[in-house]
Structure formats: structure tokens, C-alpha cells
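The protein record quoted in full:
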Amino acid sequence: MKAAAIIVAAGKGQRFGGRTPKQFLLFKGKPLFLWSIIAFRKLREIRQVILVVPGAMMPSLHTYGKRYGFTIVAGGKERQDSVMSGLAAVSRDTDYVAIHDAARPLVSPSLIRRTLRAARQHGAAIAAVPARDTIKLSNDGTRINSTIPRKSIWLAQTPQTFSRPLIVKSYELLASLNVTDDAQAAELAGYPVAIVESDYSNIKITEPEDLKIAGLLVAE
């Protein structure tokens, strides 16, 4: 199996605040984005790693690219534009592509490997966790309209892993739509997407307190 990883780090991180986008902040002595790259590099199946960043950040990252063996490409206006830029840089002889948010620094090689295996079996697979809390639906944000059965709710994470032709075709078909994640592109294109159960330590850094939680998880 020949696989590539696309690490998406082109977001602005507005909810986190500060001048520096969260994915470039130092976390335990390393830039946040680098944690994911190191995890993916531990798998022999991963032959290529592509980091998608804001164009203005590219010159400052070349030293990291040379040292850790990854390609840097400029992202786009929306997340899906950045993913498509990453896909364009993937070698044509690649079988599978794992797409991962740089804001999830604690992804494990084991989880990456399990999504690759599931994608090989099903064509598309995402890391996800079952909902723990009761989910309420509100149409206006002031009153509860209904309760959604918790057993049917899965919270999507990354990596989201696909056969390369499948995800390329999905994005080509849906280029005019604004999808929230890569699995949605595959779903809308008519492809089934398998669930790979993850765990809650694969945290996404969205708010400053998330970085503190991640620090505690690393300390464990």
C-alpha cells in the first residue's frame, strides 16, 4: 500500500485568538502542526506528507520541511480549497490519502493505521467517537424541539482516509459546494464511509483551554 498524508494547516484559527494561527504555536517545544507529521512519519505506508499552509507562511517553514521530509503547499480560501491543493500535490501512484487537521496534534500512529486499513476495505473511512452527552435539537437556540437518540450520533474527527481516486473524484464533483469535512464530499458523491472508532484524546485545539487539556494528556 502506498499512502500519502495531507496535513491541513491553512486555517485562521479565529476562535483561538492571537496573532499567530494556533497550528503554528509551540506546544511542548514543537510547532503544533509538527506533532501530526511526526505521527504519520512513523508508518511505513505513508510515502508522502504534504503540509497545506497559508501562502504567507511558506518561506518560514522550509527548514522544517527539509528536516522532517514533507512538502509544503499553499492553501485556499476555504478548507476544501486547501484540501484540493493538497490533493493536487499527491503523487499519482498513491493508493490512499489520509487527510488530517493540524489542530489535532495527539493523533496516534495506531489510529492512522486503522483508518488506512478501513479505507482499503471500504474505500473511505473516518475516525470518530460516539457521543457521550445527550443531544438536543433547537431550531432557534432558545427552546428544545427534540432529543436525538445518542446511540446514532458519532462525532467526526480526523484522519479521514480514502482511496485517492475516490476522494479526488468526490471533490471534482462537488467543487461548487461548501462541505464541512472530507467525508461529506464522499457521502454527497454517493460513496459509503466507514467509521473507525477513535478516542477522546484525539482532541482538536479550538480554544486556548484545549491546549492546556492536550498538555495534560501528553503528561499522562
Notes: The two ends are 33 Å apart (CA to CA).
